[in-house]
Structure formats: structure tokens, C-alpha cells
């Protein structure tokens, strides 16, 4: 199971988030409900044992966050999701499933249909600590989503005019060094955001290697990489130790392992390691950013997209000192403005852009064409 990207925070004073739990197991529903009640700041307004009941309950109780199991009788989570969002579009849905390749594929499909995040259930055969880790990750994801403004992030299909945050939020871009590597860090809401950015800059992808750290469980990262390859019709895969970092290739950090880079004989290759989590994450964006800064310097180009926590901020500081360009997603289009918000608040963002403008900006920087 992926490690949680933030430490547990206390609920905002007086803020109560309305929650619905959908799972065919009464034991699971009761356990999750008890955890959230004990955490404080959450009210369980409805529970359901199948997708059909969930659709009716969502329309009736209007929960802010819905925990949705995938494997249920009558209507499963995948089929229920669009019906739930139609019944109550403002709800934020977290998909929960056991960690299998099939469920990883279904979970990513759910994200494309409007779910905002996913959680892997611990398996009974695993170590006792897995349940505690699941509980911590659940509460922290719930807390991050509950503190997000009540809004629907924009994922418009048509390109929007380039919008940059007010001057205090952005710093001047470094010199005109041509980018030699694109680094992307993301977490909650990241898969959809990564897809959008890469699709919008697709004509430039053949010119540069792309290295992605997306906070995901181990099995999910391989499925996500395969999905990107199908979507983009370009080489994309889960990174392996020693893989060449070459233009036109997209490499995704494997869940549970840090991904960095090493230079030897004038060539750059992937370096994976099992070092301790950083920012409670493995893989951590910070690891990739600081190792890339040492090799690429000012020719690195980094993007921090939607996600909870502050992973990437320390690495972005090192990149910035090396002369690299750092771009952050804006608050309005982020599912959770934790990671990009931390970059902006630290004064490390050279541009702060809505999601629909990031790909075009990157394409311009890489090709030298005006955006």
C-alpha cells in the first residue's frame, strides 16, 4: 500500500464534512464509520451496501465525500459512479478496492469518470500494521478533501487563455536554457491532470524525456504507465533500474520505490532505490527533483500538479537554485492544492497556471515557440 503523503492533521474548528460509505460489507462500513467519527470533523450521513442504494442515498443526503467500494452486488462501483455523480455532482468520490491489477485498471477508469482519488484496501493476509496504515491514509485523504473549497475543478476540453497568478505568487523565469528533461510530480487528482498536460503538449513529447512521480500503490503505477502509452501512442512504461532516459520516452516511478537519475559516460539512466519514505511518500517527488537538479541543472523543467501534502517543495528549491524552471498548477483547477500550493507559498513557482494552460506552456518552452 502507498504511504500517505501527509501527517495527520486536526479537523478545522467547527467544520463538519458529510460522508457516505458504500461497501457490501457491514463490517467494513462500520469500521470506516467508527474511524472517521473518532477522527472528528466527519458526519456519516448515509451508508449503502450496493451501487443502487448509493445512487438513491446520494440524491437524498447530499454527502460531500463518498467512499465507494468497487466490488458490490446489483450495481458495482464502476457502474454506480456516473449515476452517483449525476444524482449529486458536487460530491467527491474516493474509490476503494483490494489491490489487484484488475481493480487498479478499474480504479483508473473511475478517475477518468470523475472520482477524485483511490485507496487500496489491506488484505487479511498482510501484516497487522496494514490496517493502521490504511486508517491513517484514509483519514488524511478525507481531511485534505474536506478542507478543499466546495468547487468542481475545471477540466475544460478547449484550451483557455494563458493565465498566470498575481505577481507575488510567481518569480521570474530563469534564462533561456533549452529544457533537456521534463519532471512531473503529482498526487491526489494527478492521473487526470497528468493525462491532460501530456495530451496538450503531445507534439513536443518526442523531443524530451518525461519522468513522472505520481503517488500510487505499486500495482497502479504499471497500469497508469500502460494507460499513458495507449492514450498518447508513445513509449511509456513503469521505470526499471538502469533504464535510459531518452527523448520521446515517458517513465513512471514504480509504486513503493524512489526514482532518481544518475549520469555515467555522458548518458543518463534511472536509479531506483528502497530508501526511507520522504514526506511520508515512496516514491517521493523530492528525490527525483534533487537528483535531476544535480544532473540537468538549468536544463531541467519541472511541473507540480494537484496533490495533498508538500512533496516536491524541497526538491523544487534545489532545482530553482540550479536555474531550472518550476511550474505549479493553480488552486482553481487542483483537486487538492497541497503540493502546488506549497511550491507557490515558498516562492518557488516561475509560473502558476490553470491545468488547461500548462501543456501549451511546456510545449512552448520545449520547442521555443510562443505560447
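^ C-alpha cells above, recovered residues below v
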Amino acid at each position: 500500500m502507498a504511504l500517505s503523503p501527509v501527517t495527520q492533521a486536526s479537523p478545522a474548528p467547527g467544520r463538519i464534512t458529510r460522508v457516505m460509505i458504500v461497501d457490501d460489507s457491514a463490517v467494513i462500513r462500520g469500521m470506516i464509520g467508527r474511524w472517521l467519527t473518532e477522527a472528528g470533523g466527519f458526519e456519516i450521513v448515509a451508508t449503502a451496501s450496493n451501487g443502487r442504494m448509493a445512487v438513491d442515498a446520494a440524491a437524498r443526503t447530499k454527502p460531500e465525500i463518498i467512499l465507494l467500494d468497487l466490488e458490490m452486488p446489483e450495481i458495482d462501483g464502476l457502474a454506480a459512479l456516473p449515476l452517483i455523480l449525476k444524482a449529486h455532482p458536487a460530491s467527491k468520490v474516493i474509490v476503494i478496492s483490494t489491490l489487484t491489477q484488475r481493480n487498479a485498471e478499474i480504479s483508473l477508469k473511475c478517475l477518468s469518470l470523475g472520482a477524485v482519488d483511490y485507496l487500496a484496501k489491506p488484505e487479511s493476509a498482510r501484516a497487522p500494521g496494514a490496517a493502521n496504515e490504511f486508517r491513517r491514509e484514509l483519514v488524511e485523504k478525507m481531511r485534505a478533501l474536506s478542507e478543499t473549497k466546495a468547487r468542481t475543478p475545471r477540466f475544460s476540453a478547449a484550451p483557455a487563455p494563458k493565465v498566470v497568478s498575481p505577481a507575488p505568487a510567481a518569480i521570474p523565469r530563469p534564462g533561456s536554457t533549452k529544457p533537456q528533461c521534463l519532471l512531473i510530480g503529482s498526487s491526489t487528482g494527478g492521473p487526470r491532470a497528468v493525462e491532460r498536460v501530456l495530451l496538450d503538449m503531445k507534439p513536443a513529447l518526442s523531443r524530451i524525456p518525461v519522468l513522472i512521480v505520481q503517488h500510487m500503490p505499486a500495482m497502479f503505477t504499471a497500469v497508469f504507465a500502460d494507460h499513458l502509452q495507449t492514450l498518447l501512442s508513445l513509449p511509456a512504461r513503469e521505470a526499471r533500474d538502469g533504464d535510459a532516459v531518452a527523448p520521446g520516452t515517458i517513465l513512471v516511478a514504480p509504486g513503493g520505490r524512489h526514482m532518481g537519475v544518475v549520469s555515467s559516460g555522458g548518458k543518463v539512466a534511472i536509479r531506483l532505490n528502497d530508501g526511507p519514505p520522504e514526506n511520508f511518500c515512496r516514491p517521493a517527488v523530492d528525490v527525483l527533483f534533487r537528483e535531476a537538479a544535480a544532473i540537468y541543472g538549468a536544463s531541467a523543467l519541472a511541473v507540480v500538479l494537484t496533490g495533498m501534502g508538500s512533496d516536491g517543495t524541497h526538491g523544487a528549491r534545489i532545482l530553482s537554485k540550479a536555474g531550472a524552471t518550476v511550474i505549479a498548477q493553480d488552486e482553481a483547477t487542483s483537486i487538492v492544492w497541497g503540493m502546488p500550493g506549497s511550491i507557490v507559498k515558498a516562492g518557488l513557482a516561475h509560473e502558476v497556471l490553470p491545468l488547461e494552460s500548462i501543456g501549451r506552456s511546456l510545449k512552448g518552452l520545449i520547442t521555443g515557440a510562443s505560447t
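Residues 17-146 form a domain with the Rossmann fold fold (CATH 3.40.50.2300).
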